[in-house]
Amino acid sequence: MSYLEMASKKSVDTAMASACYENSRKLYLDSLMLRRRKSTGHAYSLLVLSVEESVKSIIYRMASEGLVRLSDGKTNDPTAVNEQDLLHHRPKHNILAAIITASIMYAPFSTAFEGIREKKIDVMKAKQIMSAAIAAHQVLMVDLADPSSMVSKRVAKFFTFLESLNDEKNLGFYVGREGSSILLPNRITKAKYEYWRDFQNDFLVTTKFILESGIDPQVLEIFRQSRRSVTKRLRKVKAQSSTPSLSSSSLR
């Protein structure tokens, strides 16, 4: 791929990220309007579509920086995202789950560094910050492992809702039947709608921040190298797993 082709692809990915964000925002506003008109089912379905468009926006933003590779499905890159998958609901929900999981796992580290204003810090302070982040991460792991903790309950609730998101999006759009009962779109509960409304309100803020924030070139290169390293390792693992092992019978 030539430099001009790479530059063009970066521009397209950036434009796609912005377009997906704007569509996500409009779907969210349309959802609020339908909810005010007591059309909770349709409002809920638009809310789910808004979430999915936010996910696409983040993926295209990452692709524009070389942090994610988009493919047409004809690649041996195990870390690539098939762009056709972004047309379907389930893959986008899986990507959302991965984004939220990473956010939870790395939260103590990002929080530890948020308060730093100096451009340079000495080794001792860096060690103190990392020690505090590691300690906070250990506490988080204990909380997540405890089913009775508030953190664990909130995470479990989110992923329970996420698993049913695609089915319930369809329930919000369509009339269904269960035996002799007719199932109307408004069977989506107010509580479930408000849960995802609040989630998407925050997610839109996060998406906008990701789109507008510049990433330090040195940090970008670290992440690019990491992706290349992971890709190389996964290819090696795949090659080893597909290589037939030598059995005693094959040696006879």
Kindly describe this structure.
With 252 residues, this protein is mostly helical. It has one domain (3-239). It has helices at 3-36, 40-64, 89-114, 123-145, 150-163, 165-173, 190-212, 217-242, and strands at 70-71, 81-82, 176-178, 181-183. It has a two-stranded parallel sheet. A hairpin with a 2-residue loop joins strand 3 and strand 4 (181-183). The termini are far apart. The relative contact order is 0.13.
Number of helical regions: 8
Instruction: List the quaternary state of the chains.
Output: single chain
Number of strands: 4
Rg over alpha carbons: 22 Å
Briefly summarize what is shown.
The chain has 252 residues and is mainly alpha-helical. It is built from eight helices and four strands.
Give me the secondary-structure topology.
Layout: H1 3-36, H2 40-64, E1 70-71, E2 81-82, H3 89-114, H4 123-145, H5 150-163, H6 165-173, E3 176-178, E4 181-183, H7 190-212, H8 217-242
Parallel strand pairs: 1-2
Antiparallel strand pairs: 3-4
